[in-house]
Amino acid sequence: MNFITVKESDKVLEINFVRSPVNAINHQFLLELNDVLDKYKDSTNSTVVVFSGSDLKFFSFGLDIPEYLKLDRDSLKDSLNLLVSTCKKIYQYPKITISKINGHATGGGCMIALSTDFRYMADGRSKIALNEVNIGLSLFFSTIQILKSIVGNQNAKIILYSGKMFSPHEAKDLGLVDLIYDSDELVEKNVLSYAKKDIDAIKDLKKSLNIYDESVLLDSDEKLEIFLDIFYSENTQEILKKIKINK
């Protein structure tokens, strides 16, 4: 399907999302992303990984809700397990990871961005949000733990309970975004400075900095079943069925 494109050069691995028009996440998207992550995990040709929404107006819209509504419960559960495992794989990836948020990053798109070490967001009208509560959904345990480790418990409450779409500057104030950029040159300068670092030193530092205790990041079957119960509840289904993605 080629929803993901890859370029590796000068110690930088660029992973671009190219599922037009809004980089909505479906099962195939996740499979392709996992294949890329597995292929380049041990590559000595890259120290930094940059995720971006290519030239689309979205980093990622999040889950392709219309497509997920067609799945039976078991198939949906499999895909959600793949989503959270992919995010944890990115979070624990043995390289410096950066999200170049060139457009809106909502729901699952924000989950992917959160999983990276740094989030650089383009200045402008784009928004970032974990807005699941607005469409009648909860969120995954591992995602909440990662969010809390980045922005703190109180700011996590603001982000999750409000479901607000935050501007770049609002997101930076909350600690959700590390850098607001108005030119690709600024991003490139930061990326190249990290690319010069020793990969073994980076791997060791990352194990100490990030959450590596699997019990803390465990998305139990019980919690996932609760998420599915909410997903299939009458009220949530009514909201989800109103979501349209023009393709």
Account of the 3D structure:
By secondary structure, this protein is α/β, with parallel strands linked by helices. It has one domain (4-194): 2-enoyl-CoA Hydratase, Chain A, domain 1. It is built from 11 helices and 11 strands. The chain has helices spanning 27-40, 65-68, 73-91, 108-114, 141-151, 153-162, 168-174, 184-195, 199-209, 221-231, 234-240; strands at 4-9, 11-17, 24-25, 46-52, 58-60, 62-63, 96-101, 104-106, 118-122, 128-129, 179-181. Strands 1-2-4-7-9-11 form a 6-stranded mixed beta sheet, sandwiched between helices. The protein has a 3-stranded parallel beta sheet with strand order 5-8-10, with helices on one face. Strands 3-6 form a two-stranded parallel ribbon. The protein starts with a strand and ends in a 7-residue tail after the last helix.
Please give the count of helices.
Answer: 11
Biggest sheet overview: 6 strands, mixed
Q: Would you state the CATH class? A: Alpha Beta
Structural Rg = 17 Å
Whole-number total of structural domains: 1
| Oligomer type | single chain
Task: Please indicate the percent range of residues in DSSP E strands (runs of 2 or more).
Answer: 15-25%
The assigned CATH architecture is Alpha-Beta Complex
Q: Structural class per helix/strand content?
A: alpha/beta
Cα(first) to Cα(last) distance is: 15 Å
Helix content: 40-55%
Looking at the structure, the CATH topology is: 2-enoyl-CoA Hydratase, Chain A, domain 1
The backbone outline, from C-alpha atoms, is globular
Query: Strands across the major sheet, in which order?
Result: 1-2-4-7-9-11
Stretches where pLDDT falls below 50 for ≥5 residues?
none
- Please report the total strand number as a whole number: 11
| CATH superfamily label | 2-enoyl-CoA Hydratase, Chain A, domain 1
What is the mean pLDDT?
96
Q: Spell the H/E element sequence.
A: EEEHEEEHHEEHEEHHHEHHHH
